[in-house]
Amino acid sequence: LDSYLSFPKFDPHGEPIPSKEGKIPSRNTIPLNKLKENTIGKVLGVTLDDKSFLEYLTKLNIRIGTNIELIEKISFDKSLNIKIDKKKHHISNQVGEHLLIKVF
């Protein structure tokens, strides 16, 4: 199975898969809400495995591999304006803290 899948380093949820030697690959990710404005990155994982959270991400078309641009952080409530595939969305800081991003 490992060979058939081309020896993946991460599962479909973005969690690292240890090598046969037991080494865990590093993700080098940062939560979306910690990025600087006008930064683009790719979703590599989530830190919350809650059904309603995952359904919300599906509604926003956010999944592992999705490219996201953090456009603006709102100072009043720390919410975030983001862009996915040229479409803008407004999300809470709480959602942003659970999205793990690898910056380009």
Radius of gyration: 15 Å
Order of helices and strands: EEHEEEHE
Q: Find the count of extended strands (DSSP E, 2+ residues).
A: 6
**Overall residue-averaged pLDDT value:** 91
Indicate the structural class: alpha+beta
Number of helices: 2
Give the N-terminus to C-terminus distance in angstroms: 30 Å
Can you give the helix content as a percent range? 10-25%
Are there runs of 5+ residues with pLDDT below 50, and where?
none
Widest β-sheet, arrangement of strands: 1-6-2-3-4-5
Beta content: 25-35%
- Strand count, sense and closure of the main sheet? 6 strands, antiparallel
Principal-axis shape? elongated
What key phrases describe this protein's structure?
alpha+beta; 6 strands
Summarize the structure.
With 104 residues, this protein is an alpha+beta fold. It has helices spanning 51-59, 93-97; strands spanning 30-31, 39-46, 67-73, 80-84, 87-91, 99-103.
Write up this protein:
The chain has 104 residues and is of the alpha+beta class. 13% of the residues lie in helices and 31% in strands. It has helices at 51-59, 93-97; strands at 30-31, 39-46, 67-73, 80-84, 87-91, 99-103. Strands 1-6-2-3-4-5 form a six-stranded antiparallel beta sheet. Strand 3 (67-73) and strand 4 form a beta hairpin. The longest helix has 9 residues, at 51-59. The N and C termini lie far apart (30 Å). The mean pLDDT is 91.
